[in-house]
Amino acid sequence: MTSVLRAQGLGKRYGRRWALRECTIDIPAGHVVGLVGPNGAGKTTLLKLAAGQLEPTAGDITVLGGRPGGSPAQLAKVGFVAQDTPVYAGLTVAEHLRLGARLNPRWDDAMARERIARIGLAPAQRAGRLSGGQRAQLALTLGLAKRPELLILDEPVASLDPLARREFLQGLMEAVAEHELSVVLSSHLVSDLERVCDFLIVLVGSRVPVAAETERLLATHYRLTGPRRDPDRLPAGQHVVSARHTDRQSTYVIRTDASIHDPAWTVGQLSLEDLVLAYMEKRPAESRRVALEVQR
């Protein structure tokens, strides 16, 4: 499987504080990848390292087979839309497109202009007068018109209303289908990831407890509810992701490739949000152990 991003023991330190430490990750090509995790897990730092905006303190990272930001050709392969969907308030929409054409050797001006017209942005309008959704669409257009092989989006819809989020994600999926690019999208809004992502990575405390196609994840994770039972009494093939107990009842989220036949359990399917929350509840040491199990 070809990787668009691969990191081994990756770390970034600011003074005495590690924003990312000992992160090992392998992101496959040809997917829309959702990257999710709690605040402080290192998601933004990882994406900035991948975009070449930061230099690692420790470990190694390659993007599309090369060092991030290592050359103009390498930079041209990656599009990046930061968390605040940055645009220049004093520049018009048309001036943003001209600037993009000057800075990017693979710039697709026809696509940029067609997309701006399709989403209803007036070329003469200054970016500072656009709505949040319009600024996000302009930033996405600039990223797409680079014709990147990998598009990195760091929580691009976090501040948008539901309608603007839907329009942004719809435009993203249309671009993915048309241009066959790989995407890494970080977000706290798991419902949005569920709509657009076919591969999920959970990052907790710089560890990756789970990384797989969403279809496979949902097919191999279950919620078990029944009489109180200690985890060591579960079958060997049922790997506990999270557990909750009362005096009389146990509720487990488990991962298993086998069928569950125990009549004592009520077996339920998980939503992607349920699955993400179960992994985010785990402590880092537990996440490391489960990650090794998932990879086997």
CATH homology superfamily of the largest domain:
P-loop containing nucleotide triphosphate hydrolases
- How many individual helices? 10
The global form is elongated
Task: Label the CATH architecture of the largest domain.
Answer: 3-Layer(aba) Sandwich
The Cα radius of gyration reads: 21 Å
In round numbers, the mean pLDDT is 90
Using the coordinates shown, work out and report the CATH topology of the largest domain: Rossmann fold
* Amino- and carboxy-terminal Cα gap: 16 Å
- Percent strand equals 25-35%
CATH class membership of the largest domain: Alpha Beta
Keywords: ATP-binding, Nucleotide-binding, Transport
GO molecular function, one term: ATP binding
Domain ABC transporter: 5-230
Pfam families: ABC_tran
Can you characterise this structure?
The chain is an alpha/beta fold. The protein folds into 2 domains: 3-205, 3-Layer(aba) Sandwich (Rossmann fold); 218-295, no CATH class. The protein has 10 helices and 13 strands. It has helices at 43-50, 72-76, 93-103, 109-118, 132-145, 162-179, 190-196, 214-220, 272-280, 284-295; strands at 3-14, 17-28, 32-36, 58-63, 78-81, 150-154, 182-186, 199-204, 207-213, 221-227, 239-245, 249-255, 266-269. Strands 5-6-7-3-8-9 form a 6-stranded mixed sheet, sandwiched between helices. A 4-stranded antiparallel sheet has the order 11-12-10-13. Strands 2-1-4 form a 3-stranded antiparallel sheet, with helices on one face. The chain is elongated, with a radius of gyration of 21 Å.
Keywords, separated by commas or semicolons:
single chain; 296 residues; alpha/beta; Rossmann fold; 2 domains; 6-stranded mixed β-sheet; 4-stranded antiparallel β-sheet; 34% helix; elongated; disordered C terminus; nucleotide-binding
